[in-house]
Amino acid sequence: MKILVVDDEAISRMALMDVIQSAGNYRVQEASSGEEAWTQLNAALIPPMLVCCDIRMPVMSGIELLQRARANPAFKDLPFVLISMANDADTIKSAIQFGVSGYIVKPFTQGDARARLDKVLSQCHARMLEAPESTMARMKLMPDRYRAYLLSLQRQLELLVAEFANALNAEALKTARERMALLETGLAPLGLWRAAQLFKRCAEGEPTAADAAECLDEVRQHVHLQLCAI
């Protein structure tokens, strides 16, 4: 699962990346400016699950990046955490109208930043995955049956990973994409909301083998989280 860290100061990026990596199995992507972050967001087929962005940056501030994201349908719900100085309180208040998920005040200790980040990550996971008990109640499933469905999906994902890895020509890649599109229909009913969105993006576009690998890797993590939560 990918998190984008945006800050024009390399040391600040490294400090925040260290906090994120201590919080779990997250892949961190860096941007040294708001412009670079915006370019990365638009170029990526698989969007990050969260953006952690400094407020004060030259060329494009964190607030400006947030405003651009909210004005674009593709990113209007993308969670943002703003990194601010203590005297940026008024700016933080004005950013609330754009749906900020949280903020971290610099200079920060790892413990304080981790506590704030954990709260936001918990909210992110709740948006990505339905609680297993809710899925089972909605589908009228016993835990063993729900687990069996997830394990079956896990095996199909493993086969897809191998299929994309071995797709040596355009025809083989097309076949793998078609299998991916078929599998997408079963994800949302199993409570894998973000996984369904990612598969839909891939089905509507033309994912490369690398795009598909990134998507499948994240979806496998979602399935693992659900299995652990049953």
From TrEMBL:
Top-level taxon of origin: Bacteria
An example GO BP is: phosphorelay signal transduction system
The residue ranges of the Response regulatory domain are 2-121
Q: Which Pfam families match?
A: Response_reg
Which range is the signal sequence, renumbered to this chain? none
Which key words tag this protein in UniProt?
Phosphoprotein
- Where in this protein does the record say 4-aspartylphosphate is found? 54
Query: Lineage from the top down?
Result: Bacteria, Pseudomonadati, Pseudomonadota, Betaproteobacteria, Burkholderiales
Name recorded for this polypeptide: Two-component system chemotaxis response regulator CheY
